[in-house]
Structures are given as C-alpha cells and as structure tokens.
Design a protein that fits this description.
Layout: H1 3-19, E1 33-34, E2 44-46, H2 48-56, H3 60-72, E3 77-83, E4 87-92, H4 95-106, E5 120-125, H5 129-144, E6 148-153, H6 159-162, E7 171-172, H7 199-207, H8 229-249, H9 267-276, H10 278-288, H11 291-311, H12 324-346
Helix pairs in contact: 1-3, 2-3, 4-12, 5-10, 8-11, 8-12, 9-11, 9-12, 10-11, 11-12
C-alpha cells in the first residue's frame, strides 16, 4: 500500500465514522500520512484525529479511538496504535516487504496505471527544442497513467536538434493540413542550442527546470560531482547495479524481506517512503503536465538511496555468510535501481551500468 492509497484508506474511515453518526465533521479533502516521528511506531502516522478534533468538539484521542478500528479493518493494515495527543500510527501488513516485492514484480512499469483511463489527450506545441522534448516526454508520462495521447508540432522539428536528442512527434503542421490546433504546451524556450551537451545532459537541462523557468544550458550538467543532480541520479543507479553484481559474485541474490527498523529516521525508511511516493509523483507530473516533477522525485530517490547504501551494510563482510537481512537489503537496493531506471527511461535519458 502506497502513502496515497493509505491516505484514501484513512479518509474512508473518516467517512464511515461520519455516516455512522460517530463524528459530526466535514470529511477533509486529504489526510496526510508520513513516517512516524519521535515517539511514534509502525510504518506510517497520520494526524487526522488532531485535525478533526476541534470541528468535532472532542479530544483528539477520542477521535483517534473512533477511527482506529475502522482503519484497522482495511485490507493491508496489520494494526493501528495511538500515540501522543492522538497520532494514529499504522503498521502495514508486510508493508516494506510488499512494496519492494511489488516494485521488483512490475519492474520499470512500477507506478503505471493497471488499465486504460479512457482519457484522450492532444499535446500541441511550438517548433522549439524544449517544447518538443517536453511534449514527447509528457506523452510518455500521460500514457503511464492510462491516457491515449497524440503529439503534434506547429512545424516539422529541425533535424539539427531533433535527431541528436531523439525527438519524435506524431504529426506536424504542413501546407494543406487541417485547421491548426491551439498550442497547449509552451514552456519557456531554451536560450541556446542544447545539443552540444549530448542527448542525456541536454534532455535533463530542458526537463529538470519547471516549465515556467528558464533552463540553464551549461556544462554544469556534464560534471561528475555531487553538485550535479543528473550525475547523482545516474550514479545511484550505477551503485545499485554494482551491488547486484557484487552479490552475485558472493553467490547470493536479493529477496524482499523486513528492512524497516523501528527508528523512523533510519535511511531505509527515507528510501522506502521515496519509492512508495513514486506513483504519486508520476500522476502529479501527468496532471500538471510538468516533467520536472518526475525529474525532481528521481533526485529524492537517488539521494535517499545513496545515503542508504552509505550507512547500511548491504553486503556481508569477510567470511560472513549472506543472511536474510543481507538479501532483504539488497532487494531494497535493487528496487531503488529499478525505479531510477524506469524514471530515467521516461525522460529519454540513459540509465548506465557504469559511469
């Protein structure tokens, strides 16, 4: 169960309590769920009881006691505890293990809609390099959410930048064509030709800034340093691949298991949260027509993974035999690598095995 799905579960519990007359409140538009803070426990916590206490005219813990059994009954929830003034701490049924297993099962299609949405989208944009790259990438992101998408450009893309950057378009304006479509995708144009950066860095330079921001076409996107977010994302993928190769050399592979310690500040919690939020990031990028939202979430995952592999002993040392814990940690690393590869692919950027 992802945080988005758990939030909906909490809201359904509130709605049931309202329908049963146990609470007299307006059902909120959203319920925030996040890793538990100090003093908390379980996989996630929500402050919805504190949020509803004043309008309900009841103490927060009383509201929490009403919601607790309703949330506990939901599929995928193991148990719910109340801590502090009324925080609901939710432990999922095999939460971390199930998430890793789901990512590895679906591969780079993790976060994709299971069925077509029936939505039809036409993306029409100017004949400009950033608009064309954004249109192509947005079409792919929208398709992950089940939409049927067609792209069109006001004129035939210039081969000088379309071919090096791998830009494709379904249709373009030409003499004798039907009445022109309204432009519905117009990011701030690139200030200069990005092709000297090469395909991967040029795409990142165009896609990482928000559509209303002016992209920077500089060699900073090529440097192999921590200050370069593209390098961090690709390096994180390389490190995940390296862990898998090293484990194979030691004669074992990953197997989803319990990697979720009680410490809410542990690096694995941060990484699991970032991975669980990936489907929501894809959906938001599609809804807002903002490929930068996907790019920025890949940075979140990469930074969380690099911290995880830095402080967590994923592989056994010396004569130590691989344990269930090592297999579970490796599976989490492989899940991170899988999501990074899928996200980079949607941006049209290579996910290398070596840098």
């Amino acid at each position: 169960m992802t945080p988005v799905e758990l939030s909906r579960t909490v809201l359904r519990a509130v709605r049931r309590a309202v329908d049963a007359g146990e609470l007299s409140v307006a059902v909120p538009a959203r319920a925030v769920v996040a890793p538990p803070g100090p003093g908390g426990c379980g996989d996630y916590a929500t402050n919805v009881a504190l949020q509803l206490a004043r309008p309900a005219g009841r103490p927060p813990r009383h509201v929490a006691e009403i919601l607790r059994p309703l949330i506990t009954e939901a599929a995928g929830v193991a148990h719910v505890e109340i801590t502090g003034p009324g925080f609901l701490n939710i432990t999922l049924d095999g939460g971390a293990e199930a998430l890793v297993r789901e990512i590895l099962r679906r591969g780079v299609r993790y976060g994709y809609a299971e069925e077509p949405s029936g939505r039809i989208v036409q993306l029409h944009y100017p004949c400009e390099v950033r608009a064309a790259v954004s249109g192509q990438v947005l079409a792919g992101i929208l398709r992950t959410q089940g939409a049927l998408v067609r792209t069109s450009c006001e004129a035939e893309p210039d081969p000088a930048w379309a071919e090096p950057l791998g830009v494709t378009v379904d249709a373009h304006g030409r003499p004798g064509a039907p009445a022109p479509l309204d432009v519905n995708l117009r990011p701030v144009p690139a200030p200069e030709d990005p092709t000297p950066l090469g395909r991967d860095a040029a795409r990142w330079a165009l896609l990482h800034p928000a559509p209303h921001d002016r992209p920077r076409i500089t060699a900073d996107h090529l440097v192999q340093r921590e200050t370069n977010p593209l390098f961090r994302v690709r390096y994180a993928h390389v490190r995940a691949q390296a862990l898998s190769r090293n484990a194979a050399d030691l004669g074992f592979d990953g197997a989803p298991g319990d990697v979720h310690p009680q410490n809410p500040n542990h690096s694995s919690v941060t990484l699991l949260t970032a991975l669980a939020d990936y489907p929501a990031a894809l959906a938001t990028a599609a809804t807002r027509r903002a490929p930068d939202h996907l790019a920025r979430h890949l940075i979140v995952i990469a930074d969380a993974f690099l911290r995880y592999q830095e402080v967590t002993r994923v592989l056994p040392l010396g004569d130590e035999k691989p344990s269930a814990a090592h297999r579970a940690r490796l599976a989490l690393a492989e899940a991170a690598g899988t999501v990074l590869a899928g996200g980079l692919s949607l941006l049209g950027i290579d996910a290398p095995e070596h840098l």
